[in-house]
């Protein structure tokens, strides 16, 4: 949207008017950036227009997390890569084959991942996934994670409890 809608003056809700102005501003900045990039750096502009560019970018980005036992987002990226391979590269056969059984397993394993991601999203700014926290939040983070550990130990039994205990030392 590069201009305000025709009925903009009739909109009474100031929040809606502000949202529309912000949307137009962002659209104009993006349009100007893309236009200038196309003129001054055609190779970069070409990269922006690659089919399924976001899928490609996210696949590369999430591949680095596999070392941290975080395979689910990477696998989630590979599914559309396999599905749309011919649109991205029709010269080479797709190296990925995702079976129906693998899809079912992926979705089953992913159910808990979303809950875990939500947990870390709630802690953003307070504590990061790798455990980092600022000096100001350190004592509070220690207390919070000690409480979470105790809750986990209280609710788990057997091998699951032993694994949790080992992982949260």
Automatic annotation (TrEMBL):
Q: Which domain of life is it from?
A: Eukaryota
Single GO cellular component term = mitochondrion
Q: InterPro entries, alphabetically?
A: Mito_inheritance_9
Q: What is this protein called?
A: Uncharacterized protein
């Amino acid at each position: 949207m590069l201009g305000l809608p025709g009925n903009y003056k009739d909109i009474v809700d100031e929040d809606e008017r502000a949202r529309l102005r912000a949307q137009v501003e962002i659209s104009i900045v993006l349009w100007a950036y893309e236009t200038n990039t196309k003129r001054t750096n055609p190779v970069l502009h070409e990269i922006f227009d690659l089919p399924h560019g976001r899928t490609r970018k996210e696949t590369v980005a999430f591949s680095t997390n596999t070392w941290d036992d975080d395979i689910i987002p990477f696998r989630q990226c590979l599914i559309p890569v396999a599905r749309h391979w011919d649109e991205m590269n029709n010269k080479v056969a797709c190296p990925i084959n995702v079976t129906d059984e693998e899809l079912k397993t992926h979705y089953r394993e992913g159910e808990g991942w979303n809950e875990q991601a939500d947990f870390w999203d709630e802690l953003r700014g307070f504590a990061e996934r790798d455990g980092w926290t600022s000096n100001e939040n350190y004592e509070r983070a220690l207390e919070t994670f000690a409480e979470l550990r105790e809750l986990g130990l209280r609710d788990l039994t057997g091998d699951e409890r032993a694994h949790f205990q080992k992982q949260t030392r």
